[in-house]
Automatic annotation (TrEMBL):
Natural source organism: Smallanthus sonchifolius
Protein's recorded name: Uncharacterized protein
Length: 158
């Protein structure tokens, strides 16, 4: 079943999801690997007075199909920011995106080149799986846009 609820992959300390929450993406589920969870939960707790609630979290390693299934995909919005930096993680990341996004859904990807190897592999594989649209910089919020950071919309190929 498709979910309008968004999910974030590799949320880190949760900054992107918290910003998106303020922009109206409610009920976002923030995911990351187990070692990140304590710092993430601590950060969300500290921001709870501003957010008005504790955002949901779920442990998710991109390689772990049980953890993916536990989230009961598919999702209409899969969010990921700055997650392409380890070559070995590229294929599991793309597989997790593919498993989680609904047929008519989108992956919103905030992207910066971190590693030339991961960058090359990611885009070579990504274009095989998804239709890729780069959001023009002039469409990004002038206060938050950064010249080295791009935003992409990935959709399942029709
Ligand atoms: C550079 S940080 C970006 C964090 C956050 N999205 C941001 O923009 O501030 C990359 C994140 O991806 C997570 N990550 C890396 N490999 C992962 C994997 N195999 N499964 C799940 N998360 C992973 C890391 O734990 C880390 O939080």
């Amino acid at each position: 079943m498709e979910k309008t609820q968004p999910v974030e992959l590799g949320t880190g300390c949760g900054v992107a999801a918290m910003c998106l929450y303020f922009l109206g993406l409610k009920d976002v589920v923030l995911t990351d690997i187990a070692p990140v969870m304590p710092a993430l939960k601590h950060n969300l707790k500290r921001n709870k007075p501003v957010l008005g609630k504790m955002l949901k979290t779920s442990q998710l390693h991109w390689n772990n199909s049980d953890q993916i299934k536990a989230l009961k995909p598919s999702f209409d919005f899969v969010i990921a920011a700055d997650v392409v930096y380890i070559e070995e993680s590229v294929k599991p990341l793309l597989a997790a995106m593919e498993a989680m996004v609904s047929d008519s859904g989108v992956v919103l990807l905030g992207y910066q080149v971190r590693s030339p190897e991961a960058h090359a592999l990611f885009w070579e594989q990504c274009y095989r799986i998804f239709d890729v649209q780069m959001v023009p910089h002039e469409h990004l919020h002038p206060e938050y846009a950064y010249e080295k950071f791009d935003v992409y919309i990935l959709r399942n190929k029709v």
